[in-house]
């Protein structure tokens, strides 16, 4: 597998109501815990009078990082149902936050699980799910005189140039799909006066 599913951009706000409680759902594409913190801080300012800001996220493709937070709701009644929806849709690099305004009637653990699960599902369904490739990045180092042969391979193999430094000693960062990584590594390793290393 060298592809993964995530969402293209932040979802529109969704609203789920249960016995006067309101659950506002949001989904965001994220690639770091800093981004998670940023979205949470913004929503806490936006919904400063809410009771709970429960969330779950998953980041990564080979090394997975995830967290589920109940934010004061009974154990596993909010964060895990939200995380369950991330898993059932097979997504990664995503944060889902459900903001709850308490309506005065207790829902019980079963009611909470259902409300948080439904709200998370609605926020995913309000997003565009996209498939991305898992890419491997390499740094190719060579003398300027070897530029043409390096560029020819990059063009032939349809490799993505992430960044380049063109001086007497050149460095190009390239990216390729995981399934092609070994072949790309072999080609450059066998090139005279060219060095390649995985980043």
Automatic annotation (TrEMBL):
Pfam families documented for this protein: Impact_N
Residues in Impact N-terminal domain copies: 19-123
Organism field: Flavobacterium luminosum
Name recorded for this polypeptide: YigZ family protein
Family named by the database record: Belongs to the IMPACT family.
Alphabetized InterPro entries for the sequence: Impact, Impact_N, Impact_N_sf, Ribosomal_Su5_D2-typ_SF
